[in-house]
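[Q] Does anyone have a clean structure-token version of this?
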Amino acid sequence: MARVHKNTEGRCPRCCLPPRWCICEEMRTVDCGLKVDVLMHEREAFRPTSTGHLIRRVIEGAQTHVWEAGKPFAAGELRAPDHELWILHPNGEDLPTGPAPASLQVVLVDGSWKQATAMMKTLSGWGRRVRLPITGQSRYWLRNQLGPEQFSTAEALLFLLKALGREEAHERFRLQFELHVYAMLCARGEKTEAAEYLQQSPIAAAMPALVAKLNHCRKDYYY
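[A] Here you go.
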């Protein structure tokens, strides 16, 4: 029978993982060349698995703004002057061509589909709704996706970076995203899922020392 350990140690204030699983030694900031903001639902704000928190930690200059039901949220709290505002949403227009990334402010809505629908009403008229060319399957194995086209907030940013030709930023942020998911699976004690995830991930080759340490912990520890 697997040993189950209740976590009483708290979490690292930076990576949001229990100290045993801390991944801060491989955390790297990513300059993606555009301004990124995350509008986060209040229920998402306290979830360590949130990729909105990951974006704030890793993407240089990124900010999160917590949306609370019933409380006003003014455009001035989010909008950056001298930037064209894009709001990423599946029901938006096709990805525009032409704008330089440095002139863009991108808003990602972080929450469940139902929560995002409510938050989008707040953002109505603030900028252009933009749809991304998203394909494939989600690598966000920490939660069940509702459909084949459902992706995490961080994955939406990854698709955008690739579409804008920000290849280096895309690859660097992809590593941070995959590490976040893998470490969270390990910390949960989802041993089989973690092993399967690692087989398809670039982090084993990119950060072998940390992955080896996490694997060693994973062998005999369930969180």
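[Q] Thanks! Anything notable?
[A] Residues 1-8 have pLDDT under 50 and may be disordered.
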